[in-house]
Amino acid sequence: MSQLKWLVDTSRLSDGVRNSLFSKLEEAGDKIDSAYESGDTNKLLGAIGSLNAFINELQSNSEAASYPDSETWREQAEYIIDRMKIIVS
To answer: Which DSSP symbol is given to 43?
Structure first.
């Protein structure tokens, strides 16, 4: 997750798009931390929702969708989601 956050934060996207994408990753990270600290794996469902919002924005925002690394970012987010789904199930 930290690598994905770094990649987005250091991208050449406009400030507004970059900040919006980054905030969704920050939110997901906070929810993952909360799940870990509380031992409540159901809190990971919120992190999954935040990562899905990140993916949706990547696909719907024309600037983000055309960014060269957007497909790699989507794949990384989906990988993280898949791992969390294993833990929650």
So the answer is: G
Instruction: Name the domain count of the chain.
Output: 1
Range of 59's domain?
2-7+16-88
Distance between CA 8 and CA 22 in Å, rounded?
6
N-term to C-term CA, the chain? 21
- Give residue-wise pLDDT tens across range 26-72: 999 999 999 999 999 999 999 999 999 999 999 999 999 999 999 99
The Cα 42–Cα 74 span in angstroms is 23
Residue-wise burial string across 10-32, b where 16 or more C-beta atoms lie within 10 A, e elsewhere? ebebeeebbebbbebbbbbbebb
Contacts (Cβ under 8 Å, ≥6 apart) of 51: 24, 25, 28, 77, 80, 81
Comparing CA positions, the residue from 68, 89, 72 lying closest to residue 4 is 72
